[in-house]
Design a protein that fits this description.
The chain is α/β, with parallel strands linked by helices and 294 residues long. The chain is 34% helix and 12% strand. The chain has ten helices and nine strands. It has a seven-stranded parallel beta sheet. It has a two-stranded parallel ribbon with strand order 1-2. Helix 3 packs across helix 5. The chain is globular and about 70 Å long.
Length: 294
């Protein structure tokens, strides 16, 4: 499981009979890949099968954060509705969809893999006009793919940019990149200060990508409008005293991006298939490449 730390000590205790480590998750930063490689182990994971569920949830978080769903729900469930009568701008927030008086929406992605592109597809009916994304600087820009996405989705542009431009230009920013040292706190105070005051930040990838203290400060001081988080650094130790839990414009749910009955079943099956194939010496449906860890 994602919550199980599989380090060199655990692998050592398992002994020489251990052949395969199969995780029921798309992420595998909880596994010591170098130690696994040195022991000649195979490591399986479960990509692809959770793409749609996480993309669905990412859009949900964008809507919840922008439309003040956290505050509004608290008002209703706390019996405070009588004290909050309708008024012209009560509980208003930035609109995800375009309209005649607001015809431009720029959506930014930190990371532009399978889940980000599935999220983009779901956002097209909202009338978005521009897609910006940042990815590994060492990866070449795929101009042909970007042009095709713009054509198919009828967008004005799909453009790879640096993180600073992404922060400045995007109306909604979706953090959907892998965890690890290279992306640790990629969303920091400098990034957040460059975002629009009506900007919305969504993180459905790994909590370590976002500096929680910086985000809490950004929300508290009004640098950005709101945030929707499925993941938080240090989870599950996120209590009522956590600085982000205290922020009314921060919608937090407890890492349930893949939590649909259909997706969790598919993940369990894929994890089992990886395990069986690895033990029997066959091709695992989804195997982590350990060639760089020898």
């Amino acid at each position: 499981m994602l919550t199980d730390k599989v380090d060199s000590e655990i692998l050592g205790r398992a002994g020489s009979s251990l052949k395969v480590v199969s995780t029921m998750s798309v992420g595998y930063e909880h596994i010591d890949l170098r130690a696994a490689a040195q022991k000649g182990l195979k490591v399986g994971y479960t990509p692809d099968v959770l793409t749609d569920a996480v993309a669905d949830l990412s859009v949900m978080l964008a809507l919840m954060a922008s439309r003040n769903a956290g505050v509004a729900t608290a008002v209703a469930k706390g019996g405070q509705w009588p004290n909050h009568p309708w008024s012209p701008f009560a509980l208003c927030g930035p609109q995800l969809s375009t309209m005649a008086s607001s015809p431009t929406r720029k959506i930014g992605f930190v990371g532009f893999g399978r889940i980000a592109q599935a999220t983009l597809a779901r956002l097209v009916p909202f009338g978005i006009t521009h897609c910006l994304y940042s990815s590994n600087p060492s990866s070449p820009t795929n101009h042909e793919r970007d042009a095709e996405l713009a054509r198919v989705y009828k967008l004005k542009s799909v453009t790879k940019v640096g993180v600073d431009e992404l922060a400045r230009e995007s109306d909604f920013i979706f953090v959907l990149a892998p965890g690890g040292r290279d992306t640790y706190h990629i969303i920091d105070e400098n990034f957040l200060r460059q975002m629009k005051r009506t900007g919305i930040l969504i993180n459905a990838s790994r909590g370590t990508l976002v500096d929680s203290d910086a985000l809490a400060k950004a929300l508290r001081e009004g640098w950005i409008w709101g945030a929707g988080l499925d993941v938080v650094e240090g989870e599950p130790d996120v209590t009522i005293d956590h600085p982000l839990v205290k922020e009314p414009r921060c919608v937090i749910i407890p890492h349930v991006g893949s939590a649909t009955l259909e997706t969790r079943r598919a993940m369990a099956v894929r994890a089992a298939q990886n395990l069986i194939a690895g033990i029997l010496g066959g091709n695992m449906p989804a195997q982590v490449d350990l060639s760089g860890y020898w």
